[in-house]
Amino acid sequence: MEIFSIGPLEFFFILLIALIVLGPKDMVKTGRTIGRFLNKLVRSSTWKTLQRTTRELRQLPTYLMRESNLEEALKDLPTPESISKEAGLNEINASLAQTNQDISDWLKPPSLSIEPPSQQNNQPSKDNEESTNK
């Protein structure tokens, strides 16, 4: 809830300062004076003109779009889904996903499992067999 772009905490702070500066007796008189001023301001033709101008300025972009038929032109523009189908982006995205998976697999540290020694190291070589047979 904001009034004149003043939040509740700011409003409380302003009241506290007014109470300290004016005192409790003068706050009633000041409150009435401010209330009457705001009532006259809101009911004045100047305030109504200002409100109407503000509303028109907020609606100006929408009005300009309608005047230039941009809404119809926006409907004719292709959607991102149709563009991706036409350009074959689905295949490209699948290829990129596979590449990312390959890279992440490549960057993983090797497993630390201990492999048994190979059978080739345990078998004597042919050269050693021939020398022992002689």
> What is the count of helical runs?
7
Rg, please? 41 Å
Low-confidence stretches: none
Strand content: under 5%
Largest sheet: none
Question: What can you see in these coordinates?
Answer:
The chain has 134 residues and is mostly helical. It has a domain at 1-43. It is 78% helix and 0% strand. It contains seven helices and no strands. It has helices at residues 8-43, 45-67, 70-76, 80-87, 89-107, 119-122, 126-133. The longest helix is centred in the first third of the chain and has 36 residues, at 8-43.
Topology:
Elements: H1 8-43, H2 45-67, H3 70-76, H4 80-87, H5 89-107, H6 119-122, H7 126-133
List keywords for this structure.
134 residues, mainly alpha, 0% strand, elongated
Summarize the model shown.
The protein is mainly α. The protein contains seven helices and no strands.
